[in-house]
Amino acid sequence: MSLEQRVKELELKRAATIVLSAVGIAVIVIALLIANYPLTAPAVWLPAALVLILAFVFPVPFRNLLGAPEPMSQIPPTPNNVSLTAAPRTIRWLHISDAHIGNRRGASHWWRTRADFTRSVEQMVQRLGAPDLILLTGDLTNRGLRSEFDQLDDLLTQLRGLLSTGGVAPLVVPVPGNHDLQRPSSPDDYQLLRRMQRGRDDPEVRALLDAMWEQEPADTSLLSPMFAEYEAWLERSVLPEYRARADVQFRRSPFPGELWVEFRPKGRFSLGLACLNSAWTHHESGDLKGALHVCVEQLDRALAKPGDDPIAALHTVDRRFVLMHHPPSWLHEKARVSFLQEIFRPDYFDMCLFGHMHKGRANARAVDGGQTRYFSQASSLFGLEHFGTAREERVMGYEWGELTADGEVRVWSLVRQAGNNDVPTFIRDPARMPYEGPLIVRPAGG
Fold first, then answer.
1. Which residues fall within 8 angstroms of residue 11, CB to CB, at 6 or more apart?
2. In the predicted model, what is the mean pLDDT of residues 219-227?
């Protein structure tokens, strides 16, 4: 039985004790009233005092009887490196999105947020245990510069040092966001990308698609300059560990920024992660919701070389996630339909994780009684919308997640808010987690 289950069982027993005591007192009082016995006698008020003492000593179950949430201070601490689930066959991750490292606006806020974040990570490790993976869903940097990726490496080195267990650090699994590409000095050079929604009816779009997907080797020369620094960072800071670890297999797609990663921890189930680039048509500023593209060929090239069966590669692992930066709602209508029908199918993937929107949320979608698709959106680690204006919004948060062998996904969502004495700290997101314990964002067998 897990620690969380034992706590709940203990609280139920305590609550039952109080209820039975109250019922007993009521029966005695009724009997005494019938017998015209004085209610001020010790035989009456002593049991009542006992119930009051029980309610004072055990306030958590007493409040729960009234439907009130439990404050975190009433939850017994978890021993070091013991998961609340105590499940030996779980895979756990730290999910970070939209750090915008290198953002000069609000730089002073960044260093304070980073210190609070690392402190929060240390506390969560004591509670849940170290994660196996660090999932990075884009906008890791602010302008995709080498100096910003160096700062990202500094943060990851610190985190992985905190999170190492037995000499093994969590595996970093990233995807690029629109802030991780280097935007062209002349967006007009990339005006073809604005016409992607026309599809093959546009001769130039058809030629671009043929160059990327219909020939070998793939010609991605139009896109590669935008992602040069991101690709260099992958090669320098991420892929060497993939090559060195026996529990990791991967394929690097010819499409910029994309990977297929298989995590195969000994004695547990395997997890495949399709890391897709949703930012390649977000090469200019502005609200491009409903204008972006993720093609089915992106998934296929990440999974297998041309001529090989990409779906066969999917089924070599037990569980599968899609990672990208943008939510599917930001895709063009045709691309969104294709994404749901050909990429993020319930029989292909268990969960789609992303960021971009700066606020954490999870949702599930089923169409016409079919299998459910599950989505998890992370908060921004460092979001400063409209900095310095009356509309400034500081959204800072991150998530922990856990997957079981039977497909259940649990999420702990944390946000940075002013706490005691107006000092900011990371706490569980009150909008998403009013009660102690994880969110079940995907049920077992879902």
1. 60, 61, 64
2. 92
- 351, containing H or E segment: strand 351-354
| List of residues 6+ apart from 433 with CB closer than 8 A | 412, 413, 439
Q: Which residues contact 378 (CB under 8 A, 6 or more apart)?
A: 95, 96, 97, 98, 137, 353, 354, 355, 360, 397, 398, 399
Alpha-carbon span 305 to 91, nearest angstrom: 28
Q: Which pLDDT does position 199 carry in this prediction?
A: 83
- Spatial CA neighbour of 344 closest among 327, 359, 332, 361: 327
| Three-class secondary structure of residue 135 per DSSP | strand
Do 400 and 276 belong together in one domain? yes
DSSP code of 65? H
Distance CA 273, CA 275 (A): 6
Enclosing domain of residue 40: 3-68
Beta bridge partners of 261: 250, 273
- Tokens for 273? 């992660």
Cβ(51)–Cβ(15) below 8 Å = no
Tell me whether residue 75 is in a domain.
no
Within a 13 Å sphere around the CA of 387, how many CA atoms are in the beta-carbon half? 12
Distance separating alpha carbons of residues 227 and 183, to the nearest angstrom: 9
Q: Is the dihedral of CA 248, 360, 414, 426 positive or negative?
A: positive
Handedness of CA 359, 343, 239, 133 (dihedral sign): positive
Question: Residue 387's pLDDT band (boundaries 50, 70, 90)?
Answer: low
pLDDT digits (tens, 9 = 90+) for 339-375: 999 999 999 999 999 999 888 999 999 988 899 999 9
Residues 147, 44: one domain?
no
User: Do 375 and 246 belong together in one domain?
Assistant: yes
Instruction: Return left, alpha or beta for 149; rule: phi > 0 is left, psi -120 to 50 is alpha, else beta.
Output: alpha
What are the backbone dihedrals phi and psi of residue 96, each rounded to the nearest 5 degrees, phi first?
Answer: -120, 135
DSSP 3-state assignment of 342? Answer: helix
If residue 14 lies in a helix (H) or strand (E), which one and from where to where? helix 3-34
User: Residue 80 falls within a domain, yes or no?
Assistant: no
DSSP E strands, 264-350 = 271-275, 319-323
Q: Which residues contact 71 (CB under 8 A, 6 or more apart)?
A: none
Longest Cα pair distance anywhere in the chain, in angstroms? Answer: 98
